[in-house]
């Protein structure tokens, strides 16, 4: 059993413009995934609220479900939920840039983490 040929990796004629377009498409896809994860989490919170579950623990197992669906760790699912909620409620301009592919997942995550302790009032000036 021999190694796979990867000649195409070295002979690709991909242009910088095409790479940039592809990178933006991937960023948009990542945004849609984070947004879908957030929607699922919020849906589970609503279901728990309707069932009379204490608000402090509503949606507490959504990350387990999401991890199973996406074949990722529970920690990664929790991080996606946190990012998605942050984008929806605190960082609308970051969300808009991410949604249109101007920034990628790593940058959106870094901005979310960097701005986590910034007050909402200061955030309006910074973001």
Protein architecture, described:
This protein is mainly alpha-helical. It has one domain. It contains 7 helices and no strands. It starts with 6 loop residues before the first helix and ends with a helix.
Look at the structure and give the mean pLDDT: 91
**Outline:** globular
How many whole angstroms does the radius of gyration measure?
A: 19 Å
How many domains, in number, for the residues?
A: 1
The chain-level structural class is mainly alpha
Count the helices. How many?
7
Tell me the span between the first and last alpha carbons. 54 Å
- Which series of helices and strands comes N to C? HHHHHHH
Low-confidence stretches: none
Largest sheet: none
Beta-strand segment tally: 0
What percentage of amino acids are in beta strands? under 5%
Helix proportion of residues, in percent?
Answer: over 70%
In brief, what are we looking at here?
With 127 residues, the protein is an all-alpha fold. The protein has helices spanning 7-11, 16-50, 62-70, 74-89, 92-99, 105-114, 120-126. It starts with 6 loop residues before the first helix and ends with a helix.
């Amino acid at each position: 059993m021999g190694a796979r040929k990867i000649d195409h990796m070295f002979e690709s004629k991909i242009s910088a413009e095409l790479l940039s377009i592809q990178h933006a498409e991937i960023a948009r896809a990542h945004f849609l995934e984070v947004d879908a994860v957030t929607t699922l989490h919020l849906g589970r919170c609503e279901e728990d609220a309707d069932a009379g579950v204490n608000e402090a623990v509503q949606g507490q197992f959504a990350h387990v479900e999401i991890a199973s669906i996406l074949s990722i760790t529970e920690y990664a699912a929790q991080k996606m939920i946190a990012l998605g909620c942050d984008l929806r409620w605190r960082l609308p301009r970051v969300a808009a840039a991410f949604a249109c592919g101007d920034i990628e997942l790593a940058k959106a995550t870094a901005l979310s983490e960097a701005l986590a302790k910034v007050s909402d009032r200061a955030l309006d000036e910074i973001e």
